[in-house]
Structure formats: C-alpha cells, structure tokens
Amino acid sequence: MLVTETQTVIEIASPRYTRIVYVVLAVLMLVSATYFGNDFYNTPPSNFPIATNIAIAEGMTVSEITEVLKEHAVVRSSTYLYGLLLKKYDGVYVQAGTYTFEKPMTAEEVATAITEGDYLAPTLRITLPEGFRARDIYSFLPNNFEQMPIEFFEENEGYLFPETYFISPDMDTSVLKELLLTTAKERHSEIIGDEGTNVLTSDEIIILASLIEREAKDYESKKMVSGILQNRLNANMPLQVDAVFDYLLDKESGELTLDDLAIDSPFNTYTHTGLPPQPISNPGEESIRAVLEPTQSNYFYYLTSSDGEFHYAKSFEEHKRNKTKYLP
Q1: Residue-level pLDDT at 262
Q2: What is the rounded distance in angstroms from the CA atom of residue 235 to the CA atom of residue 237?
Q3: Pairing state of beta strands 93-95 and 124-127?
Q4: 65 — alpha (psi -120 to 50), left (phi > 0) or beta?
Q5: pLDDT at residue 147 in the model
C-alpha cells in the first residue's frame, strides 16, 4: 500500500441510514450466533488466507473494506465485522495498507488488527524530490516496479506529486499508479482549488510551476521568477526559459547552441509565445504557490550568475549588461 508520510487512516463515515441498517443487521448476526450456542461468524473461515497480501486502499469506506476482507475469506461475514467495528471500537479509524496475516484469526482479532495497523506488510520509504521529470521518477523507483512502462510517467508529467510514499515491495503496479495520480489530484486541489485563477487554469498553473521548479532555487526566487514570467505572458512576449531545453535535449543553459534555441518544437519558449503544451517537470508545493502568489515587479528579464545569485532587469539593454557583468 502506498500512503503519504503522515499515517493514512480511513474513518468510519457512512450515511446515517446505512449505519443504522448495518448496526441492526450486525445485532441480528450477534444474537443469532449467541442463540445457536457458538460464535460461528467470529471463527476464521476454513480457507483463511495465510501469508497473502490484502490491500486496504486509501479512500475506501469501511463497508468496502469489510467486503474486501469477506471476499478474501478473512472473515465469514462482512456485516458481522462491520458490527464489531462499530460496537467494539465505536467509530475509530481503520489503517490503510497491505496486510499479511500469519495465522487464521477470529473476526474480533481481524477488527483489532485493522484498527491498530497490526500485520501491515513491510514497506519501502520512497521520497520523490521536487522537479523530478518522468524519466527521473522512472529510474528512481525500486527495481520491482521496473515493469511499469515509462509512458505512464511521461503521459502524467506534472501530475506526479513530490511526496514521501510508503510502498509495499510487492504492490500491484495498478495500485501504485492510482495512488500516484490520486495523491497529485488531492494535493493540487488543496493548493490551487478546483478552478485555477482568473487568469490561469489549473493545468496552466501546473505548467508554469513546472518551469519555475527547474528555473529557481528557493521560495523567494521562485515568486520573483513567477512574477517575471507572468509579466512576459501578459505582454505576449516569449518566455525564453532555458529549462525547456533540458527537458527536450537534456542540455543545461551553458551547453545550448543557437541551433538548439531554434529547434522546431511547441516547447521552445524562444520561438513560441505562451506556455508549453504540458509540464516539463513535477512541481512541488512551493513552485505551485509561487504561481499563485508572484512577486509583483516591473522586471521582464532574469539570469543566474555562476554563484547562484539572481539578477533582474526591466529592459533588454539592462539584461545584456547583466549578462556581460555576471556571466562568464
């Protein structure tokens, strides 16, 4: 199971009428078990899955979780388990994750295990740094995910959020894909909202943030670069962002030739105005917020000197002087 660094939990939060139905059914089950002189529904099924990974995914409802456990023969009755969770644990949380049970367990023991996180399978801690590109992430993941096609990462460039994940070594790749995309969707929604700004759509914010992520180094410089690039967008000027050539040609600014700057590509921010057609990296929260909170200025140009300092200019003539003064 892949979760964020903060312990992921799932709250029992079903509609009131659904809860009432489950409680009534659970009580009937319990009464029936008592009447027949044994806790039939509490005993482990004969085909209880030992040493089998069973995933409780982030975002599942408790009724869905109990159904999954019933389908995998962990419990005899999903309704009985639901009733135990409500009766014994009174609405506490169920831990998301991949579970591996070492021996047959009663329904009561299963309820305890999934609320306390017992029997969670070992996980790998994976942190995706800000600004990683699709090819970076593809080569960064453990070898057991090498069967994932690089096309998945390329198609979702910009929408794989830099975060710390806890990954089960034998997690199904479809689960990993879903969690990567879900995490990005949730985090982008938290930061941006659902509709972007009055000027930029949500997708345009991510594209611009992906440029800033590869151009600037800290929050202050990111906000300044954001303001400059938005000034250029408003003036219908080419953005002239060198980071796109690292994306296209795997070349840094100092390696670029005049032919490189003239390459025929919609990503070429020297020959095309506006934003590239899609993100060139996976931006983190700071870069996204820098798009939403740019530093307002009259600058239209910037460069980074060999010591990493930024130098800004209001005109092309001033920018040329900065290049002569600060670049080798």
Answers
A1: 92
A2: 5
A3: unpaired
A4: alpha
A5: 74
Distance CA 230, CA 280 (A): 17
Are 50 and 104 in contact by the 8 Å Cβ rule? The answer is yes
pTM: 0.67
Q: Give the mean pLDDT per block of 10 residues along the chain (328 residues).
A: 42 54 61 55 91 80 91 93 81 78 91 86 83 90 78 94 81 82 92 82 96 95 97 96 92 86 94 96 97 96 90 95 90
Q: What is the pLDDT of residue 55?
A: 82
pLDDT of the residue at 3: 40
Please report the pLDDT score of residue 25 as a whole number.
Answer: 64
With contact defined as beta carbons under 8 Å apart, do 321 and 312 qualify? no
**Alpha helix segments (H runs only) across 170-315:** 173-192, 202-215, 219-234, 243-249, 258-261, 285-292
The Cα–Cα gap between 43 and 28 comes to 17
* Tokens coding 9: 């939990």
Tokens at 163, concatenated: 């975060």
- Reduced to 3 states (helix: H, G, I; strand: E, B; else coil), residue 325 is helix
3-class DSSP assignment, residue 309: coil
Closest alpha carbon to 308 in 217, 228, 220, 240: 217
Q: Environment class of residue 182 by beta-carbon count within 10 Å: exposed (0-12), middle (13-18) or buried (19+)? A: middle
Best CA proximity match to 187, nearest among 317, 4, 2, 1 = 4
Nearest alpha carbon to residue 103 among 150, 62, 44: 44
Given a contact cutoff of 8 angstroms between Cβ atoms, the answer to whether 84 and 34 are in contact is no
Alpha carbon of residue 112 to chain centroid: 29
Q: Point out which residues pair with 164 in neighbouring strands.
A: 127
